[in-house]
Write a sequence for this structure.
């Protein structure tokens, strides 16, 4: 048989699907994959339903319906004072992953080096390699997961075409401060590097923190591709509506890739997202407050049974560092044990590393109903001591 494309043929099933399948096989509570267990905002869902019944259902513009592109530009103008031309600097994609794929393929050519931070979202590396790029991996570490000048200096060089930067960071739940962004910006400008910024968690930040888009840092406006996701903003992860924002020379090429990936995105969902982005600021603050309440509920419960919880600054996730517990098992072994013995699924953070992995950290998703979190905590009450449930 003719050999298949090795970039993809040799890939394992994603850890998210593997752990979700393990949750199904064991009838476990799934705190692994990052999705809420409620249906999402009713008014936004009703806007999508109305647009389906009463609106246009044929091919929309490849770049996105004008109403949504205008809403995206207005939204970022309101929240970040970022001035975008909706017709030349904004594009709608079928989800954040497609937005990232279009951006990577638009920028990276064979032999280009691309700086990537581990823990790394699983789609980045295969697409970089499919483009012929060479990933240069940097290892972030708990508990801070911060960038350092020494770290960046070790990989940036004249061959560095792009850097992929996820902020807020999944799975580590870090919201990067301005000083880290300015540090990264200095290296991008020094080496004429394009920044592809995965900012899908931009609205899911807690405790009064502010998400700062790298594109707003001085010197980065024309060398940054900003990626967003309506699925994360509105807790509608199945809708797969993504945004790409960039200066016209960058966006034009990303659009040419997009036309041969998904080409366009369901118009009813686009109309509903346009409506959602126009909601008052209080909606977004209330969303953060409710998610922070769930975070605190799970944090308090895990700490009460002995888990060392690392502070979650954003995203749907919190992480636990198992190393102080002396369990004599890796994060992978721990996750396998708790899904089979305690019927709770989590994600081993080592799955986000390709080399030199951190093997002591486990990720839990807290964007669940109180009863779901409480049931999981009851099941995990003996896991920290290694006692098997009867």
């Amino acid at each position: 048989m003719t050999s298949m494309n090795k970039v993809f043929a040799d890939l394992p099933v994603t850890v998210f699907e593997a752990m979700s399948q393990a949750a199904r096989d064991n009838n476990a509570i799934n705190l692994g994959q990052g999705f809420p267990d409620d249906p999402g905002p009713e008014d936004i869902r009703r806007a999508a339903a109305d647009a389906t019944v009463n609106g246009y259902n044929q091919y929309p513009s490849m770049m996105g319906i004008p109403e949504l592109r205008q809403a995206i530009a207005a939204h970022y103008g309101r929240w970040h004072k970022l001035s975008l031309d909706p017709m030349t600097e904004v594009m709608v994609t079928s989800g954040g992953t497609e937005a990232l794929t279009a951006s990577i393929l638009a920028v990276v050519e064979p032999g280009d080096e691309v700086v990537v931070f581990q823990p790394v979202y699983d789609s980045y590396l295969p697409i970089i390699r499919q483009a012929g790029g060479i990933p240069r991996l940097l290892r972030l570490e708990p508990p801070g997961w911060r960038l350092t000048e020494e770290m960046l200096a070790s990989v940036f060089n004249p061959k560095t075409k792009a850097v992929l930067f996820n902020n807020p960071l999944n799975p580590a739940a870090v919201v990067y401060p301005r000083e880290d962004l300015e540090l990264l910006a200095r290296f991008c400008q020094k080496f004429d590097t394009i920044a592809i910024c995965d900012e899908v968690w931009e609205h899911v930040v807690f405790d009064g923190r502010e998400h700062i888009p790298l594109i707003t840092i001085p010197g980065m406006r024309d060398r940054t591709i900003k990626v967003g996701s309506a699925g994360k903003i509105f807790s509608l992860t199945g809708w797969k509506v993504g945004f790409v924002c960039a200066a016209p020379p960058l966006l034009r090429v990303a659009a040419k890739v997009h036309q041969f990936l998904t080409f366009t995105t369901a118009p009813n969902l686009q109309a509903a997202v346009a409506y959602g982005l126009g909601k008052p600021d209080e909606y977004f603050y209330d969303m953060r407050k409710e998610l922070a309440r769930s975070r605190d509920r799970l944090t308090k419960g895990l700490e009460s049974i002995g888990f060392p919880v690392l502070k979650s600054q954003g995203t749907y996730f919190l992480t636990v560092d198992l190393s102080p517990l002396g369990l004599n098992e890796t994060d992978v072994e721990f996750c396998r044990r708790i899904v089979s013995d305690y019927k709770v699924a989590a994600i081993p953070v080592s799955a986000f590393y390709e080399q030199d992995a951190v093997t002591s950290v486990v990720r839990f998703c807290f964007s669940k109903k109180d009863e779901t979190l409480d049931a999981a905590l009851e099941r995990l009450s003996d896991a920290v001591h290694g006692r098997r449930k009867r």
